[in-house]
Amino acid sequence: MSRLTYVLKRLLLAVPVVWLGTTMTWFIIFMGPIDPATRLLSQGQTRNPAAYRAAQEQLGLNQPPLQHYLDYMVDLITFDLGQTFLLYQGSSVNALILDFLPRTLWLGFWSVLIAVLIGVPLGFYAGMRSNTAADYLASFGGIVWRAMPNFWLAIMLLAFLGSLQGMIGVSWQELIVPIDAISGSPDMSRIGTVDGFLAATKKVLPAALVLGSASMGNEMRIGRTAVLEVRNEDFVDMAKAKGVSDRALVWKHVLRNALVPLVPIITSEAFLLIGGSVLVETVFGINGIGWLFFRAAIQGDLPLVGTLMYVFILIIVGINLVQDLLYTIIDPRVGLEGA
C-alpha cells in the first residue's frame, strides 16, 4: 500500500467520524432538554405563542425532525452556515469564523511549536544523559511545569510582563517590536509583512506559552522515556557492533525511532489546545474561536454553538490526518502492511 493510498484510506475513514460528531451535536442542541427557540426570546416573550412560533420558524424547528436534520447537515457540508441569532445578531456565521478562526490557529500553532521545540529536545537530552544531574534537573522542571494550572500561570506571566519596565527599564510592549498592550487580539491583517508577522507573534507568545505549558511537560517526560527504551533495543547494539559512529547512531537510529511514540502525544495535546483555548483566549482577551464559543454558550446562542462544534470536529479530524501522514514520514513501514 503506497503512502498516498494509506492517506486516502484514512481520509475516507474520517467521513463517518465527522458525520457521527455532527449528528450528536444536532441531537443534543435541537432535540435535547434545552429548547433553542426559547433562548431566542426575551423573558416577556416566552409565554407569547406567536413569538414562540416565529422563533421556531426562524430556526427551522417547525419542520419535521428528519427534514430539519437533513437541511442542517446540507448547510454544514456546503458551509452555508446562516446568521447568528443572539451573539453579533444578524452577522454571517461564515464571516465570523473567517474573522475569528485565524487567531485561534495562530495561537495554536505557536503553542504546539513552543511545546515541541522546548519539551522534545529537553526530553531527548535527559534520556541521552540518564541518571545525571542534567537528567534530574530536566525531569524535575518538567514535572513542576506540568503541574502548574493554566489560569495561575497566566496570571503570573501577565504580572511578570507588566513589571518588566521596572526590572529592566523596557516594557514588554516596546521590546523588539512595539505592540499596543500585553494582552489582546493579534492583528492578522498585516501578517504578510515582517513587522506585522513579528507583532502578531509577540502578541500571542504569552498566551501560547501558557497554552503549551502542559504539553511541554508531557512531551519532555515521554521523550525521555522513548529515548531510554530505544537505547536498549537490539538494533542499537547491532549498529554499535557494525561500527556506526556515535553521531549517526544518535541521529539516525535513536532519536528518529524515539519520535514515533511522540507523534500521537503531540497530536493529542493539540486536541487539548482546542479546549484550553477557550480559557486562555478569555484570560488574554484574544478574540478567537474559543472566545467566540464561550460567549455563544454563555448567551445561549445554541445554533452558533453547534456550528462552532462542527468547526472543532473538522480541526480534530484534520489533526488526526496530519498525525497519520507524520507516521508514514517518520516510519515508512507504516501503511505498507498490505504491499
Automatic annotation (TrEMBL):
Its main location: membrane. PROSITE patterns: ABC_TM1. Keywords: Cell membrane, Membrane, Transmembrane, Transmembrane helix, Transport. The chain crosses the membrane at residues 12-34, 105-126, 147-168, 270-294, 301-322. It is found in: Cell membrane. It comes from the Archaea. It is a multi-pass membrane protein. CDD domains: TM_PBP2. SUPFAM superfamilies: MetI-like. GO terms for cellular component: plasma membrane. Belongs to the binding-protein-dependent transport system permease family. This is ABC transporter permease. It comes from Halosimplex pelagicum. The lineage of its organism: Archaea, Methanobacteriati, Methanobacteriota, Stenosarchaea group, Halobacteria.
